[in-house]
Specification:
By secondary structure, this protein is mainly alpha-helical. The protein has twelve helices and four strands, in the order ααααββααααααβαβα. The two termini are 29 Å apart.
Length: 264
């Protein structure tokens, strides 16, 4: 979800402190439903502006917990966001239209079928993570449907026994380079090289430009990877190294780095 702009933050704050005709103030949850911004995002923006939120006592005093019901507005109801063409319902307490028609929030998926889920989880011994990855949902979603259908979950030890994820069965397998990789990074040579890179870059992270001096807060990162091909020239080339803080180094190697920044 996108971050609100400065003008949108102004509007959020104004709406939060402006009472309706009945004298009631809307809370963060109602404001979130009306604007589409997450409640935590709204609270964080207000904290950054130094705006104090209402205490529970103040919320009760101003009856912000019980917004006035609104009558159905004139005109045709909007259509469901899933594209089915069905009209949505009016939520009188929140004075907003539903975004989706009832039952249309999530598309049908096979894991919502009891027989299919039993066959995959029990018979085929697939893990909740494997099923979740297939349908791009969280493992907690698969667990919820297991509980809903009364399918008994395996213990962690049983999952490890029935699902060998070591060696080339592991999706992170890279032809056995991890031992070579770890050994080089624990060598005295690497410690000296890393220290030279930190000094060269003035202890500044190349991504966030932050200044770090705490031990372990900086990492020397190879732009061109070396371990898979055991490319010692790439490993020793100081021009192939940049300084990154631990947080940015994790981001560079994550899926969030869609443009492969600092990677060749």
């Amino acid at each position: 979800m996108s971050k609100p702009t400065e003008s949108e933050i102004d509007q959020l704050i104004s709406a939060y402190f402006t009472p309706d005709p009945s004298g009631a103030f809307i809370g963060v949850s109602v404001l979130s439903r009306k604007t589409g911004f997450a409640g935590t995002t709204i609270i964080r923006c207000m904290n950054q502006r130094g705006v104090a939120l209402r205490t529970p006592q103040e919320a009760l005093l101003h009856k912000s917990y019980r917004p006035q019901k609104r009558n159905l507005p004139p005109g045709a109801a909007p259509l469901c966001a899933c594209g089915c063409g069905q009209s949505v319902k009016w939520i009188s307490n929140a004075a907003i239209w539903q975004k989706y028609a009832t039952g249309h929030y999530r598309k049908d998926a096979l894991y919502k079928n009891k027989e299919w889920l039993y066959d995959n989880y029990i018979t085929q011994q697939r893990t909740t993570y494997a099923i979740a990855d297939e349908y791009e949902v969280s493992p907690a979603t698969i667990t919820k449907f297991l509980q809903k259908f009364g399918i008994k979950r395996r213990r962690g030890a049983e999952s490890l026994i029935n699902c060998n994820r070591s060696g080339d069965n592991n999706p992170a397998w890279k032809n056995g380079i991890s031992r070579l990789h770890d050994g080089r990074y624990f060598s005295n040579l690497w410690q000296q090289m890393a220290s030279m890179i930190y000094t060269r870059d003035n202890y500044n992270c190349a991504r966030c430009q932050g200044y770090f001096t705490t031990k372990g807060s900086l990492h020397a990162h190879h732009i061109h990877p070396w371990a898979e091909d055991n490319d010692m020239q790439a490993f020793l080339d100081l021009n192939n190294l940049i300084t990154l803080c631990a947080k940015c180094h994790m981001w560079v190697h994550s899926r969030a780095n869609t443009e492969h920044t600092f990677l060749l």
